[in-house]
Amino acid sequence: MADAARDPPPDRTDFQELEDGEDLFPEPAATQESEPASLPAADISTNSNGPKHDSLFDDDPEDLFAEATEEVSLDSPEREVLLSDGPSPAITPITPPTSVITPRIGNAHDDMFTHSSFDEIEEEEACDSFDMHISVSDPEKVGDGMNAYMAYKVTTKTSMSVFKLNEFSVKRRFSDFLGLHSKLASKYLHIGYIVPPAPEKSIVGMTKVKVGKEDQSSNEFVEKRRLALERYLMRTVKHPVLLKDPDVLQFLESSELPRAVSTQALSSAGLLRMVNKAADAVNKMTIKMNESDAWFEEKQQHFENLDIQLRKLHASVESLVCHRKELSVNTAQFAKSAAMLGNSEDHTALSRALSQLAEVEEKIDQLHQDQANGDFFLFSELLGDYVRLITAVRGVFDHRMKTWQKWQDSQFLLQKKREAEAKLQGANKPDKLQQAKDEIKELEGKVQQGERDFEQISKTIRKEVSRFEKERVNDFKTIIIKYLESLVQTQQQLIKYWEAFLPEAKAIS
Amino acid sequence: MTDEVNKGTSTLSVHIDSIKVKEVLNEGDTLTFLIVSQKLSGTGECPVDRTYDDFEWLQQHLFSQEDVPGIQGVIFPPLPGKAQVNASVKVMKQLGFLGLGEWQPYCTALETFLRQVAAHSILSKNQAVETFLTSSDPPGRQKVKKNIFNRLSQAMVEMRTEGHKDVDEFFQTERDHNLVLTGCTKNAAERFLDVVQTQQKIATASGHFSTALHLCIEPGEDPDKQAFSKICAEFSEVFESMKKNMTSVAENNVSTLGLSLDLESRYQEAEKEMLLRRTCKLVELETSRRNAEKAKPVKKAALEEVRKAAETEFEHICGVAKQEITQLQRSRVEAMKQALVQLCEKQIHTARESADQFNQHLQAFRGMA
């Protein structure tokens, strides 16, 4: 494994992302996934993500290319096309021992590769059954003032063979997570993989922490973030393809990580990104795809609906959480007033009972707080995660449309070239004719590639959506069960408190 | 706070404990209360319709019994504030617990008022009580002119006499204690009301969430869709259960401790008024003593008469007051005890029910493939 290949020279990455207009801007962008710049011109340029580019031609990929279609030679123009949307994510420098990961490039001879397809990767995964647990813990403030940051300990426990050890930890800061996501997004989103979005950046929240405000709200913020980071990592590694990605492995394993600099909150890169996003939106509106596959149309509608529903649910839960917090405050105040009443009461037994009542109410207040946290941390955050995930899913569908558009564009161009060639047939310009013929050949290759890309992304999305839907059901079920368990427990606690109080009340005479 | 001891001396023709304020009817602008009591003679029920104005009429009659010795020493059962249809926010706030839940707590409060009046040894003897409870026609609506509660001067009186030092330690202590307790009780009642109202908000919010979840249910044969729809359906039920639970908890709070704190609060006000009247009389007595002492021989005899009358009246008042205070102490402790015990038992019951329901939901989810 060429470690050098894995560490992207930072400025190159920057350049990269600027060109691609990827997620340099923190919050919304982290969720709306980064696509290559919408300006079509940029697509065809030779921008390839530095590190990936290098690694392609290191070590083993040579072999894969040897098997690849003859049409693609390492130096051919086709390569540019193939690499323009970002490198093939299917090729990673890490060759898992038992499976061969199919290069996306050169799938022309399908029969050669049926044995090494995404299906097989999944099978491998099933055998090497997912046994991995990541925890994010021990938030620690490093540094002072506005340059301070929180460092989190990321511990991985696993028996999976792709890792060197069974248990290991590293220290990471928030921008590292954002950096990881940014890399994964640039590699995988545009070919149809649903890359889990990173937690959102929060200028307000972090500023409080930096300034050193040690109050409940900043503690809550850190806790909320810690849990969000944990969920993010778990989702990422649960994805069989992402798990094998070198950036992911490096993130989890290596003790030093180059800082992801492009995640500064307010930066010119961020502004550029916003501009690109706007351009993107306009572009999207003008792509009218002839959807031949009803499945995609239906799914797209489905996700649009789901988006709306989840957002509504999220708002509902926030309201519930708010009321619960209010209840906690009110209960505490009532407890105080009951205690005061007990103190001013002459009658001994009644006085004692009222004081006890105050204590019971205080305990109940604690229960309310825990319940509010439960509502919030379990639920509200889950819904928030899924709202962002759905956005990533819809982004992936958009990429498919773009891919289709590219294919159509190539076809259109080819058509034009053919017409031009036909005209040149008559004229006596052998040079120009040859040039036209060459260009046609090139375009034919592009068209074929475009079609392959489109089919591949469609296929990938189908799988991804299926996986996503299953995950969604499991996720929700798990959280709901946890939630119900907490509800039951709360009621049982209440029973205990009241039963302890009852004899005191009865003893008043 | 039913006055058990005085039951035997009631002159009413109905069972005190049978007095019920059954229903409230909304007739345009006014609320009409249907009151039913059982006849002592065993001849059946005695239903009457009364409005709030009728209750006030009764109260006025009780206040104006000047010929009854020591009447000013009575702690009059407090009548709740006026309930109005489409009441303003201010009115509802003043009603506190009584303004909640479609007037049920309010009816209970009126019922308590009537039972206490009916059970009071001195008050129940007033004809107005019998008329109120049994006469099929609404009692006369004319305003009773003079009564010992001339509210206009009340505030001024309060200012002048509140701090007046007492001659009797028992009463001085009681006055001080009443002052402290009134503040604490009022505070506790208000805080508890806040708790209840927030619980109601949570119940409503849970209902909304349940509805929102229900909307996520999608028809279709896609197995993943079905799985998710199933989850949403079942989870929607969970929030319905939560709504029921919260509603119950809030109701339990209102019907036990809530009403109890409210009644306590009003009774402490009533006691305060009584103590104030007594203190006024004390001031009057001390004044009449001084006047008699300083009187010129010509006026002396007359002033002596005045002094004697004042003394007698004061003695009567003190006598009644002491009884009333002792009585009140006993009954309020008893009432609080009952409220706390009931609160406890009801909340335990609700918690058990809810725990069962949540468990059922939990099993349903665990059982889902």
Protein architecture, described:
- The complex is a heterodimer of chains A (509) and B (369).
- Chain A has 509 residues and is mainly alpha-helical.
- Chain A is built from 18 helices and three strands.
- Chain A is elongated, with a radius of gyration of 29 Å.
- Mean pLDDT of chain A is 73; it is low at 1-118, 123-128 and 265-270.
- In chain B, a hairpin with a 2-residue loop joins strand 1 (20-27) and strand 2.
- Chain B is mainly α.
- A three-stranded antiparallel β-sheet of chain B has the order 1-2-3.
- Chain B is elongated and about 110 Å long.
- Chain B has helices at 52-63, 89-95, 104-119, 127-134, 151-161, 169-214, 223-294, 297-367, and strands at 20-27, 30-38, 45-51.
- Chains A and B meet through helix 16, helix 17 and helix 18 of A and helix 6, helix 7 and helix 8 of B.
**Count of helical stretches of chain A:** 18
Portion in beta strands of chain B: 5-15%
- Rg value of chain B: 27 Å
Q: Biggest interface between protein chains, with counts per chain?
A: A-B, 56 and 56 residues
Which spans of chain A have pLDDT < 50 for at least 5 consecutive residues? Answer: 1-118, 123-128, 265-270
Let me know the largest β-sheet of chain A: 3 strands, antiparallel
Question: Sheet with the most strands of chain B?
Answer: 3 strands, antiparallel
H-E order of chain A: HHHHHHHHHEEEHHHHHHHHH
Order of helices and strands of chain B, N to C? EEEHHHHHHHH
Q: What share of residues of chain B is helical?
A: 55-70%
DSSP E strands of chain A, number: 3
Shape of chain A: elongated
Question: Per the principal axes of the C-alpha atoms, what is the gross shape of chain B?
Answer: elongated
Report the sheet-strand fraction of chain A.
Answer: 5-15%
In short:
The complex is a heterodimer of chains A (509) and B (369). By secondary structure, chain A is mainly alpha-helical. Helices cover 68% and strands 6% of the residues of chain A.
Question: What is the topological layout?
Answer:
The complex is a heterodimer of chains A (509) and B (369).
Chain A: H1 3-6, H2 10-20, H3 27-31, H4 40-44, H5 50-56, H6 61-67, H7 77-84, H8 110-113, H9 118-127, E1 132-142, E2 149-158, E3 167-173, H10 174-188, H11 203-211, H12 216-238, H13 240-243, H14 246-253, H15 268-286, H16 294-344, H17 348-426, H18 430-506
Antiparallel strand pairs in A: 1-2, 2-3
Chain B: E1 20-27, E2 30-38, E3 45-51, H1 52-63, H2 89-95, H3 104-119, H4 127-134, H5 151-161, H6 169-214, H7 223-294, H8 297-367
Antiparallel strand pairs in B: 1-2, 2-3
Helix pairs in contact in B: 6-7, 7-8
